[in-house]
Structure formats: structure tokens, C-alpha cells
Design goal:
The protein is α/β, with parallel strands linked by helices. The chain has a domain at 13-315: Alpha-Beta Barrel (TIM Barrel), CATH 3.20.20. Helices cover 41% and strands 17% of the residues. The longest helix has 19 residues, at 374-392. The protein is globular, with a radius of gyration of 21 Å. Residues 8-362 form the Amidohydrolase-related domain.
């Protein structure tokens, strides 16, 4: 029995788009510009991958699970380069997760065929494990990172595993049409459509440079939109700083919320992300784009529908899997109130989350994590973070962080990145290009 007197019980929160395995770099990049950040982050990732080994990424996944639990996130939809480690971490922590190996042969040294083989192996090994709490997805990185051969292989995977979600980035660059042309398509949506990848099982992330016609095509296909507002407002990435929300709403597309990569904004609070989504959309398009209740649905049942889990989670009702969160609103910071959805989306933060239940199991009780060894996770994270800094030369203090002299990018092979740029006729990598 859980005493929730004077408190609020809502379905567990669902983070609809997450990159997880670089969790340990929090704060390193916060003061960099967007282009410089991405250059340094890609290079640093390859450094960690080649020199620090699985222990670095294991610690990252464990810390991510701990943070998700303490922020009331019960389900995460992740796209990562270390999915097997993620499946184990999510499963052992008691969380629910949809995980796809990120397929991007222009961004990593592995060939398209090798990545596709690994993805198939991951699906066969990890899909529908941990009593069904861990499931697989097919996760091509997007029009910018994938060759034509890789898209062909993704289509083959989709045909062989039709029950899986396809999770990808789309239109997050002003050059999206040009990049799609490299695979023989008119634009990114045409690229997906040509390979039979655009339907109600498709999850499209960002859409920063999509337009009204794109929104209509997405809605007509029944695809779902994963909106990550904060990272783009933080760096004002591109001339267009927002995605076509009014058109997506006009045509009835399902739009839900994700936190994206922790190295961008260092954020884990999904409720605050929804609040930012509303504030930024109001700033761009005018007030009352979303009601408070709309935002709660986006974080719960609408996100569950996007992931194909709405028959199991996303609402508190008989017959579902008992993923829920107890929130303490019986405090002077919240009382008195009259509009409960407004309280939950405007003033509640992760610190108000008292109890977290997944699949009927209590994972957090009275704000204490029960399903993980918190001190062991923190010690491993600290140790691996210190290894990263010692190896790369990043200096940190309470006042910020300082990259090593000279770009890390010059000391790590960037051949996959250069190959991607040449594929699309843009010549060389320059600062602020990405």
C-alpha cells in the first residue's frame, strides 16, 4: 500500500527521444557555441570509445538510469551506439525502455553492413526482454548520417521486424534536402517513403527545418513527431529556430516531448522540458498553443501511443502495467491551487516526485531509490569522468570547464565526417558547419 493522501498520482513520464551513453560529460560543453560543441563532442566520443572502453559507457548508462528514476521518467526511447549496455542497465534498474542501435555509417568507422548486422543481433538478443520492459527499435541516424546502402538495409530490417518502431532524426539541418538527394530522394520524407519507412510506426525527431507541406505529409502518414525544444533554443541552431508546430497541430500529427542528448543541455527534467516547449511555442507563434492538460498527455499517453505501448502504459487504469509517479503537491510552494494540470506543468519539478513505480514494482519510495545502489553508481561515474578528463586534457572547476589547447578534432580521425561532407558536395568540415 502506498499512502498518497494529499498527493497526485499520474502515469509514469515517458522521455520520447534520448541519446544516453554520453551522460558523463555533463557541463563540459555548456558554454560552447553549437557548432564548436558538436565538433568537440563527436571527437570526444570517439576518444572515449577507442581508449576508455565499456566501463566508461556502463557508468554512463547506470548514471542515466539513476537520474531518470529520480526525475519520474519510467520509460525512455533511446538511440545510442552502445545499446546492449543500455538494455542491461535499463532492465536491471527496473525501468522500461525502447532502445535502438544508432545506425550512421557517415559518422562512425563501421561500415553499413557491419552496423546492420550488429543491429539485427541486438534485436534478436534484447528485444522483449526483462519481462517485456526492454524492447528494440530500428534507429537510423537520419538523412545526414546514412548512406544509400544503409537505408536499403534499414528497409530490410523493417520488413523482417514489422512490429518495431523506426526512430530517426529528420530535417534538423538546413541542408536536409541536399543530404536526402545523396540517397536518390527528393527530400527526407521522400527518402523514407521510397523505402517504405513512413507510416504509423515511424518516429521523427526534431523537424527544425520542415515546412507546412512536410507537416501535412507526416500527419497523413500517421507518423509521430518527437519534439526536443530546449537544445535548439539554447544554441539557436540554424536560421529557423523552431519547427512547424501550427501546421503539425492543424493536420493532427501526434507531437510528444524528448530531452535529446545530455551533452547539449545537461537536462533530465522532463516536466520542465514540457514547460519550455509551451513557453517557446508561445513566444514563436502566440499564446495557448498547448493547454496544461495537453502537455500532461504528451508526456504520458500520447508518448505511449508513439512508442506503441499505449495498451500497456501511459494512463492509470485497470489492466495496464502500473507505471506511475506520486507527486507531493501538499506544500507551501504549491498550495493553495485550483488548476491541477497547471500546477503539474508550471510549478512542479523533479524534487516534488516522491514515489516511482514501474510494472507494479516500487523503484523509488519517499524519494529514496530502491532498485539501484546509488553510492556505487555515483562512485563509478566519478571515477570514469576523471579518467576521461585525464586522458583528454579537459580541465574543470566549479566555475566551468576548459577544452585542451587546440581542437580535439585534429587529434581524432574525422574521416567518417569528411566522407559524409564530400558525399553531399560541401568540401571540408569548418567550424559552425554542423
Amino acid at each position: 500500500m502506498i499512502d498518497a493522501s494529499g498527493k497526485v498520482v499520474i502515469p509514469g513520464l515517458i522521455d520520447a527521444h534520448r541519446h544516453t551513453d554520453f551522460t558523463l560529460v555533463q557541463g563540459l560543453f555548456s558554454e560552447l557555441g553549437g557548432g564548436e560543441l558538436l565538433e568537440e563532442a563527436l571527437a570526444l566520443y570517439h576518444t572515449a570509445e577507442s581508449t576508455l572502453g565499456d566501463s566508461f559507457f556502463e557508468a554512463a548508462w547506470q548514471l542515466a538510469c539513476l537520474r531518470q528514476l529520480t526525475h519520474g521518467v519510467t520509460t525512455v526511447n533511446a538511440m545510442d551506439f552502445t545499446p546492449a549496455l543500455g538494455a542491461e542497465a535499463i532492465g536491471e534498474s527496473g525501468l522500461r525502455g525502447v532502445i535502438g542501435p544508432e545506425l550512421a555509417d557517415f559518422l562512425t568507422p563501421a561500415s553499413a553492413d557491419d552496423q546492420l548486422t550488429a543491429a539485427r543481433r541486438f534485436i534478436e538478443t534484447h528485444h522483449d526482454t526483462y519481462e517485456g520492459r526492454v524492447t528494440a527499435s530500428i534507429a537510423p541516424g537520419g538523412e545526414a548520417g546514412c548512406s544509400r546502402r544503409l537505408w536499403e538495409g534499414v528497409a530490410e530490417l523493417r520488413a523482417d521486424y514489422p512490429e518495431l518502431r523506426l526512430h530517426t532524426h529528420l530535417y534538423d539541418s538546413a541542408e536536409a534536402d541536399t543530404m536526402a538527394a545523396g540517397s536518390g530522394a527528393d527530400d527526407p520524407l521522400d527518402l523514407l517513403d521510397r523505402y517504405g519507412l513512413l507510416d504509423e510506426r515511424t518516429l521523427l525527431t526534431h523537424l527544425l527545418h520542415a515546412d507546412r507541406d512536410d507537416a501535412r505529409r507526416i500527419a497523413d502518414a500517421g507518423a509521430h513527431v518527437l519534439h526536443c525544444p530546449t537544445v535548439y533554443s539554447y544554441f539557436q541552431a540554424g536560421e529557423r529556430t523552431w519547427f512547424p508546430l501550427p501546421a503539425l497541430q492543424r493536420f493532427g500529427a501526434n507531437v510528444v516531448i524528448g530531452l535529446d542528448d545530455p551533452f547539449w543541455f545537461d537536462s533530465w527534467d522532463l516536466v520542465q522540458e514540457a514547460k519550455h516547449a509551451r513557453l517557446l511555442s508561445n513566444f514563436e507563434y502566440g499564446a495557448q498553443r498547448w493547454s496544461s492538460y495537453d502537455l500532461l498527455r504528451m508526456l504520458t499517453i500520447d508518448a505511449a501511443r508513439a512508442l506503441g505501448l499505449d495498451d500497456r502504459v501511459g494512463s492509470v487504469e485497470p489492466g495496464k502495467r502500473a507505471d506511475l509517479v506520486v507527486i507531493d503537491v501538499d506544500t507551501p510552494r504549491h498550495q493553495p491551487y485550483s488548476n491541477l494540470p497547471s500546477v503539474l506543468t508550471n510549478t512542479v519539478t523533479a524534487g516534488d516526485i516522491e514515489t516511482v513505480v514501474v510494472d507494479g514494482e516500487v523503484l523509488v519510495e519517499d524519494r529514496a531509490v530502491e532498485s539501484m545502489d546509488v553510492e556505487r553508481v555515483r562512485e563509478a561515474a566519478t571515477r570514469q569522468r576523471e579518467r576521461l578528463q585525464a586522458h583528454t586534457g579537459w580541465e574543470t572547476s566549479l566555475g566551468g570547464s576548459t577544452p585542451p589547447d587546440g581542437s580535439i578534432l585534429r587529434r581524432v580521425s574525422a574521416r567518417p565526417l569528411l566522407r559524409a561532407m564530400k558525399q553531399y558536395g560541401r568540401g571540408v568540415v569548418t567550424r559552425h558547419t554542423w
